[in-house]
Write the structure tokens for this entry.
Amino acid sequence: MTQPPHEEPTARSQDELREQVERTRHELGDTVQQLADRADVKTRAREKALAVREQAETRVHALRGQAETKVHALRGQARTKAAHVAHTVEEKLPEPVKQKGAAAAHEAREKAAHVARAVEEKLPEPVRQKAAQAEQAWQDKAPQPVRDHRTALLAGAGAVLVAWLLIRRRSHS
């Protein structure tokens, strides 16, 4: 704030003088407020802490995103490696082991289908209808890998139902 020397008149009228005094008071008030703000260590420390906290949160968010990206990439690599290892193991299996595995899988599917038919024959008609409705709804919504193993899943469900019926029959006897 520079002021003209006191010998020179600064205002031409009283109104101008009042305006100058008011402006000077306002400037002085701002200056005092700035000095008070600088002297308020507690508030400045809070503001600094808040700024540091916001920076830390931003950094954590960025690091979390990077970590998620790396985990996703590592999962993909692990899946690829597992598929490769499985393929390599399958290629190295002796033919008799492959045949036995295929035969066992075929036999398991046949037994599961047999159990499912046996259970279905023993179920009352309303239960069969509900099961057919549920199966249709399931086929409409189930993913392909699940639909591919439908017989095994139905056989398992049938086995559970048979076990439940046997347990129930024994408890009522």
